[in-house]
């Protein structure tokens, strides 16, 4: 389900091709994720792939199409979680969080997140990544972000 959620968010943000949806559906079925629309989608060719059928499958699986702002917030939270798990480097996670926050409507929360992670990235670059204190601040910022923002399903 993780890959389907990530695909859904990427699709909303225009970063996912519909041509790949049938193969992604087939892979999900092979991993035990199942819904009627997902089965139908898996049987289509790349050229017949249907964005609407994908959204129907996701709704059947309990993950309806998110609004673009919600999708950016999901990606921001997922990057923070990846930083804390060690799946992404602090710099790469901070870059992703900054990028996502910069797409959110201007609000005090989005602006503070953008400013904080941009400042941490600049500090990292200035010190050429040789500052454990900056890495720790990035982890603390990610933790604060997760505490302050609404829960997102795990990718």
Walk me through what this model shows.
- The protein is an all-alpha fold and 155 residues long.
- It contains eight helices and no strands.
- It is elongated.
Question: What is this entry, summarized?
Answer:
By secondary structure, the protein is an all-alpha fold. The protein has 8 helices and no strands.
Straight-line N-to-C gap: 8 Å
| Secondary structure category | mainly alpha
Q: What proportion of the residues form beta strands (DSSP E)?
A: under 5%
Order of helices and strands: HHHHHHHH
Task: Return the average pLDDT rounded to an integer.
Answer: 88
- Which oligomerization state do the chains in this entry correspond to? single chain
Taking pLDDT < 50 over at least 5 consecutive residues as the criterion, the unreliable ranges are none
The radius of gyration computed from the alpha-carbon positions, rounded to a whole number of angstroms, is 18 Å
Number of helices: 8
**Strand element count:** 0
Shape: elongated
Helix fraction bin: 55-70%
Largest sheet: number of strands, sense, barrel closure: none
């Amino acid at each position: 389900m993780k890959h389907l959620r990530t695909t859904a968010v990427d699709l909303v943000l225009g970063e996912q091709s519909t041509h790949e949806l049938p193969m992604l559906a087939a892979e999900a079925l092979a991993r035990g994720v199942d819904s009627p629309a997902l089965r139908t989608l898996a049987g289509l060719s790349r050229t017949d792939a249907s964005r609407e059928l994908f959204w129907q499958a996701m709704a059947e699986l309990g993950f309806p199409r998110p609004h673009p702002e919600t999708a950016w917030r999901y990606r921001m939270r997922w990057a923070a979680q990846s930083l804390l798990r060690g799946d992404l480097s602090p710099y790469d996670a901070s870059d992703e969080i900054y990028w996502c926050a910069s797409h959110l409507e201007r609000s005090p929360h989005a602006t503070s997140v953008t400013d904080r992670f941009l400042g941490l990235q600049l500090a990292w670059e200035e010190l050429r990544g040789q500052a454990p204190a900056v890495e720790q601040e990035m982890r603390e910022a990610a933790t604060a972000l997760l505490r302050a923002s609404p829960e997102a399903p795990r990718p």
